[in-house]
Each structure stands twice: as structure tokens, then as C-alpha cells.
Amino acid sequence: MISPLESERRLKSTASSVLDPGVHALAGKDSAERRGWPGRARPRGRKNTAGFTLIELVVVLTIIGMALALAMPLLAGRAAGVSLNAAVGEIRAALRGARNTAIAEDRPVVFRGDPGGGFWLDRRYFPLPAMSGGAAPRVSVDGAAQIAFYPSGGSSGGRVRLAAGDAGRVITVDTLTGRTDAR
Prior knowledge:
The structure is a single chain. The protein is α+β, with helices and mostly antiparallel strands. It has a domain at 56-182: minor pseudopilin epsh fold (3-Layer(bab) Sandwich), CATH 3.55.40. Helix content is 43%, strand content 21%. The chain contains four helices and eight strands. A four-stranded antiparallel sheet has the order 3-2-1-5. A four-stranded antiparallel sheet has the order 4-6-7-8, covered by helices on one side. The longest helix has 52 residues, at 54-105.
């Protein structure tokens, strides 16, 4: 009977005599040594998938860049509208405060717009923050130069116009109730 070691030695000697010279050098090495891991086993977590190629990454980044280039003008236009809406909210709050002050202190309170980017409320100036374009919205009062709020809760009424570039909003002040409505 032949031992397992003897049968393995015979198999190697016959394989090296049958194979051509370029292959027989690798015939005695195990598979880990042939794949670039000499003297040790191949690591278990390593697989043949290496990730994304450079071409794939460049194509994906180009697509993302084109999508952003198309979306940025739309987002920039909305930023001006958002800033204008914030200014409208601030002026409406000031107008409500003027009405409440007139009622609480039993005296008239006057609101005036400033085309430079703010408003006057009872001889006190309140600047509006600059918009994304760099300038604050222009504030003007239609008709009379001011809107007065009376202790009865009423007002002289009028319209406050805010303009910034091509965009604009109008705040209407009711004569009877002194309440505001933005459009």
C-alpha cells in the first residue's frame, strides 16, 4: 500500500514531466501563492470586485453638475421671493403693532414707508434686511405719504407697496378695522 505522501510526490513528478516548461514552475505552488499571496492564505474578506471605475465616477459627477446648473437659476429666483415674503411679514407685524399701540396708549400712531429700504413708525426708523440681490426692498405708501392708526382701532387706510427688482407685493390696510392683508 502507498502512503498519501508518496502518492502526492508521484503525482507532482508526473505533472512536471507532462506540462510545458512555463507552467511547471507553478505546478507545485498552492493557489494562494499563484494569486499574489506568497506563503500565506488569501484573506477571506477580499473579493474580486474593486468598486467603481474612474469613467463611471466622472459620468455620475457630470450628470450631477448638469442637474445643478439647471436648478440654480430656479432656486435663485425663489430666494428673492422668500426674502420679499419675509419683509412683508415684518411690515405686517409692525402695522399690527402700530394698531395695538394706538389702542393701548390712546393716541394716534403713524406709519411711513422709506424707499431706501425700511419704514418709520412713530418717528422711529426700522431698516429692512438686505435681500439676496444686495439691496433692501423699497417701501412706499400709495396715495398719502403715511398711514395713521387711531385709538378707536381704525386707520386712515391705504396700501403699502414693497418692490425688489422685478418682484413686488402689496399690503392693504383696512380703513375701518385697521387690519392688514398682503397680496
